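Quick one, tokens below:
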């Protein structure tokens, strides 16, 4: 194989790897943005509508209080598991899984 052909093959391989890395990064950022939106809505959205939430009772507590004390923490833990599962799928799709 001559040097010019080897350089072309190497350049093509680098471009393919760069495209995969960029796609992986783009999907990761998209996932993070969606999960941060859910986090924001649960954290701050619940605080904005606390009066309406307090009209609902959950386990004997006003729902606004419950969301501040326990519910938002539970949602955050669920978000962590969702992120881990979705990243495994994304990693597998781009061939960077472990």
């Amino acid at each position: 194989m001559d040097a010019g052909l080897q350089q072309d093959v190497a350049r093509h391989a680098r471009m393919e790897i760069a495209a995969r890395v960029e796609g992986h990064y783009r999907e990761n950022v998209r996932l993070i943005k969606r999960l941060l939106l859910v986090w924001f809505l649960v954290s701050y959205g619940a605080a904005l509508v606390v009066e309406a939430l307090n009209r609902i009772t959950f386990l004997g507590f006003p729902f606004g209080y419950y969301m501040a004390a326990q519910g938002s923490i539970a949602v955050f833990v669920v978000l962590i598991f969702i992120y881990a599962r979705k990243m495994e799928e994304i990693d597998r799709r781009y061939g960077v899984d472990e």
